Model the fold of this input.
Amino acid sequence: MVDGNKDGNNSNSKSYNSEYINLCVEAYERAAIALKYFENSKEALIAKSFIITKNIKRNVNGNTVTVPKNFLEIIDQKNGRKIKKRKLLRDSELAYYKEQLQHKEASRILMKELTNRVTFWKNILNPLIKKGIINFSNISESISQKFSLLNDIEKHNAEARSGTVNQNIYNDKIITLNNENVRSKNECIFANLLHFHKIPYYYEKKLNIKTFNKYYQYNFIKPDFTIFVNNKIIYIEILGIADNKDYSDHWKVRESIYAINGIERGKNLACFSCSGNNIDTALLNDWIVKIKSGDIPAEIVNID
Done:
């Protein structure tokens, strides 16, 4: 993540600890992604579309009138309608509008807090950017990539829940808790554990690759799972038939494609193996917890 000079002896970088720099960059990314996600979320749009106020005085038809405190005015900006409550609200109605008011206020506070955090961490990074210790364009690209993945995951999940995606595309009907049709029971167990741990994931998401070799002539690859955890995009491969030479050769080519595209085990690629229907769910759960804690295993773990 640190982008220093080529000679590696940049005097500017000596006063900065690489771990400190990475933590600052991660903090900025997290805040920027959260703000971007919030600004584009349905909840934020709902909060923005309704302006709910508790002003006591209102101007109605040119006349100033006094409105009791338990009256609320709701302005729907989207449709340009203005609805005024000129009668005492029932308790249920009042509770509803108060809830909406709190939602708007919470949204406003959250928006302000996230904006302040983005500004704070950007100010921390500015001296590092000016000295060429980090490359801000790389950070911006990373934020866009992660935000795009989160958006794709949310859209995919909504389509999966509605039954409009990934249904009955394989011979066996193996359905996850997220209502997806996957290839194997092991993939189903893994997907359900991700769901249990609230880890955003995308099953067999197409990943465009810039480099390939003579053994692999496609410009994309489909990892078994793409997950987002600890502000990182991690690719998951579930391996099987370890004693099959053709399968083993195929995996070697696939892993080499990952490597020349900057995807490596222990960094942003994690793999586990299991053969047939044998799988130790408790062991697999521990493996996921390890990744969730930020420890990406470099070795291929057998989950049989």
User: Anything to note?
Assistant: The radius of gyration is 26 Å. Confidence is low (pLDDT under 50) at residues 1-14, 45-91.
